[in-house]
Amino acid sequence: MSESAPAPGAGSSPKRPWGLVLVGAAGGAVLALYAAAAPFVAPALRRVCLPFVPATPAQVENVLQLLRGRRGALVDIGSGDGRIVIAAAKRGFQAVGYELNPWLVWYSKYRAWREGVHHNTRFYISDLWKVNFSEFSNIVIFGVPQMMPSLEEKLQSELKGSARVIACRFPFPSWIAVHESGKGFDTAWLYDAKSFKTTAKEDSD
Fold first, then answer.
1. Which of 43, 75, 116, 163 could form a disulfide with 136 if both were Cys (CB 3.0 to 4.6 A apart)?
2. Secondary structure of residue 75 in the 3-state scheme
3. Nearest C-alpha neighbor of 98 from the set 71, 75, 117
4. Superfamily in which the 57-204 domain is placed by CATH
5. Given a cut of 90, is residue 119 above it in pLDDT?
6. pLDDT score recorded for residue 196
7. In sequence order, what DSSP letters do the residues of 141-197 get, joined into one string?
8. pTM
9. How confident is residue 199, by pLDDT bands cut at 50, 70 and 90?
10. How far apart are CA 80 and CA 84, in angstroms?
11. How high does pLDDT run on average in the chain?
């Protein structure tokens, strides 16, 4: 009577696929790093790819310089980590930030609490194209060239004549700035709504 052949590997300890283990570990580390970083670099505005790039200290100072003597509600469109909103609140503004990235909004609220200005700040998770900005007298935007024409039209139709708009990094394509602050990438441009609304009305006549 013949005996059946032993099963492959019988009587010996199974070999561990160390190569697969190492590959899996490396892949897991990459995914973990991406998961941690993605909330802070993901596009902040859905219609246009606008990754989060923190405002430099010079940019913040240029914005504050253009806000001197101003009062009324302030909004930062695409507020990122909240540094413009927080800086404005420290200067006495009731400041609001709209940001599509929820992680950045939560972080902004924490920073405002830590800086002691949480009573003068509000942060909302929202797409800027779905927000009406007519209640604000001071508008700040860190944009990119491809979004500025559409944003120009939106603000022109919504803002009151007493409003002022500050654009950082890139100017609006059609509006004429009444003041500038800073140089190069840190430049900020100030626009008077009364001026660009009057121009728009004349063009439509």
1. 75
2. strand
3. 75
4. Vaccinia Virus protein VP39 (3.40.50.150)
5. yes
6. 80
7. EE--GGGHHHHHHHHHHH--TT-EEEEESS--SS---SEEESSGGG-EEEEEHHHHH
8. 0.74
9. low
10. 9
11. 81
